[in-house]
Design a protein that fits this description.
Two copies of one chain form a homodimer. By secondary structure, chain A is an alpha+beta fold. Helices cover 43% and strands 21% of the residues of chain A. Chain A contains nine helices and twelve strands. In chain A, strands 1-2-9-4-7 form a five-stranded antiparallel β-sheet. Chain A has a four-stranded antiparallel β-sheet with strand order 3-8-5-6. A three-stranded antiparallel β-sheet of chain A has the order 10-12-11. The first copy, chain A, is elongated and about 55 Å long. The first copy, chain A, starts with 15 loop residues before the first strand and ends with a helix. Chains A and B meet through helix 3 and helix 5 of A and helix 4 and helix 6 of B. The structure holds a DNA duplex. Chains A, B: This is Crp/Fnr family transcriptional regulator. Chains A, B: Keywords: DNA-binding, Transcription, Transcription regulation. Chains A, B: InterPro entries: cNMP-bd_dom (IPR000595), cNMP-bd_dom_sf (IPR018490), Env_Response_Regulators (IPR050397), HTH_CRP (IPR012318), RmlC-like_jellyroll (IPR014710), WH_DNA-bd_sf (IPR036390).
DNA sequence: AGATAACTGTCAGCGCGCTTACATAGCAGC
DNA sequence: GCTGCTATGTAAGCGCGCTGACAGTTATCT
């Protein structure tokens, strides 16, 4: 009996462009925000010209909660940068569904697939109503070719993601589930809490929900966390982190 | 760690002995070899000037079998490109040791850590007597800043590694050990064989050797592989790949 | 307010992979 | 040859996490 796979009420996907204020000024502010998020600034600061070149290409898109932002298997149309809300990246469906990652404000996606001309390996669902900045493929390529600082910053951005991905592999291999759970909670914490249901957390670790629940209740008995509805509250982050070793 | 998928090209692997000629010519040939290995050529072909700039900075280093190429925890002194032999990247020690990856000819390492100014997360041991091309950190940075094509190619190289790393995570989550073993064998195959002892393969999956051995003998009984001393011979790659699903 | 969907809590049975241990086989050195 | 090291083969016991199921709780919708 299918419990509740939520394959999204797709195509409910309403993309609408944001207006408001002076369009140019808004665009520059968004570009500046992207500049802060992509890669490390020290290596290659953005000039005003870099910023306006970037601003000229960014489009703002609003996605409703539950909507599919992009679908696995299709060629990426460009680069997404999450500005507000969370996007869940998942593979497979039903019982075999695994959540690869949940991205939030400042995170970038689609660039890798564009650079390598490969299809998207995962599907992105909006967990909240979200705002996403979009850069189409050709514009992205043009910016990389003409703006040195942008190319350099993008390199460090991708490098950061690679380091995080490798870290995650190291964190999986040879760890007990308890260690992995402690690590996941510490990593996904936002303002002292992890705003994700146990079902999603379990999928991120590739385990079943009852297995996760058992460990969470154990942590709760020890006073490390408080289990809420659709969220975990972290009470003792230090002890939690020490369990991740 | 560069995914050693495409570099399985025998042509690339036989190019290791770049003998003869003047030192300059040798350097240029090495640089051209690096150019073929790093990233995707279509996006940004190297000019002759790019090649000679790269050639001027490369140093050739020979490491003995079993030697430590670099040690985890230390800041990286630059970028390594494996030309001949295999380097095992591992974390931890003793029972908790896990092999993150084994890199071979054409693979690149150290650049990520340099770009992010972070310590190396793993230690590199030479599994064979190996030749490594070395690019020190300052030279690397200089090349990125002055050579557009090199920066662009490096971006796609890092992107390829990130895609491979994410693939690996997807391949781990929710898979049975049997599926993971089939996948690992298919991925690490070099000329129809996997030249690694079971101990190393087990560490790459984060499992114990007896668990791996049981599955390997099972595969052998089914005629998929032949277990040799320090190596696995692949007999039926297609059926093996189908088991990885 | 009531209906519905989504989330949490829990249990019993079972199988995979871990642990420990030991025996055998291949390989390199003198 | 013999020695020592490393790799492979295998078995018994055990515990973790999976499976499937169901009850209770909280949020969302109309």
């Amino acid at each position: 009996m299918e419990p509740s796979k939520s394959p999204a009420n797709p195509l409910q996907r309403t993309l609408r462009r944001l207006g408001g204020g002076s369009p140019d000024e808004l665009a520059i502010r968004q570009a500046a925000w992207v500049a802060r998020c992509v890669g490390r600034g020290e290596a290659a600061p953005f000039s005003a010209a870099d910023l306006s070149a970037l601003a000229a290409e960014l489009r703002t898109v609003t996605v409703e909660r539950g909507a599919v932002v992009f679908r696995g298997g299709s060629a990426p149309s460009g680069v997404w940068i999450v500005q507000r809300g969370r996007i869940e990246l998942s593979v497979g469906s039903g019982r075999r569904r695994a959540v690869v990652h949940v991205i939030g404000p400042g995170d970038v996606d689609g660039d890798i697939q564009h650079l390598l001309e490969m299809p998207l390996p995962y599907t992105g669902h909006a967990l909240d109503e979200s705002t996403v900045l979009f850069l189409d493929g050709e514009s992205f390529e043009r910016l990389l070719a003409s703006r040195h600082a942008i190319a350099r910053r993008w390199l460090s951005s991708v490098a950061m993601r690679l380091a995080a991905s490798q870290d995650r592999i190291i964190g999986i291999l040879g760890r007990t589930l308890t260690q992995q759970v402690a690590r996941l909670l510490a990593e996904e914490a936002v303002a002292g809490a992890v705003p994700l249901p146990q079902r999603t957390l379990a999928a991120m670790l590739g385990v079943q929900r009852p297995s996760l629940n058992k460990i969470l209740k154990d942590f709760e008995r020890k006073g490390l966390i408080a289990v809420r509805y659709g969220a975990i509250e972290l009470l003792d982050i230090e002890r939690l982190a020490s369990l991740a070793e």
